[in-house]
Specification:
There is one protein chain. The termini are far apart. By secondary structure, this protein is α+β, with helices and mostly antiparallel strands. It has 2 helices and 5 strands, in the order βαββββα. About 30% of the residues are buried. The longest helix is centred in the last third of the chain and has 13 residues. A 5-stranded antiparallel beta sheet has the order 1-5-4-3-2.
């Protein structure tokens, strides 16, 4: 299997625009993502998105299949680069998020 590239981000506040989640402060109005279905993992309702390189130049998430969810006033995104198939990248996202534990500061 080719090497996989993982990107994880967390926002200190909820973000509803998925393109803004994956592009962060570098977001521009021309940046778009492909929104897919929903899933629930660890009780978190998440949305699948794909970040096309053609509309997200320079994004760390470019070419990634990403799970995005908001909980506790924060938005999270976890995505592996689609170097084999989107199915494989999605399976890797799910496996990682299933083992993710969010902790409070302090």
């Amino acid at each position: 299997m080719p090497p996989q590239h993982l990107v994880i981000v967390a926002s200190p506040e909820p973000i509803e625009d998925y393109a803004k989640v994956v592009n962060g402060p570098a977001w521009r109005p021309v940046m778009r993502v492909e929104v897919g279905g929903r899933t629930t993992i660890n009780g978190w309702r998440a949305r699948w998105i794909f970040v096309p390189p053609s509309t997200n130049e320079g994004s760390a998430f470019s070419g990634h299949v990403v799970l995005v969810w908001t909980t506790g006033g924060h938005t999270y995104a976890v995505g592996f680069h689609d170097t084999t198939t989107r199915r494989v990248a999605k399976a890797m996202d799910v496996e990682l998020v299933r083992h993710l534990r969010l902790v409070r500061p302090g």
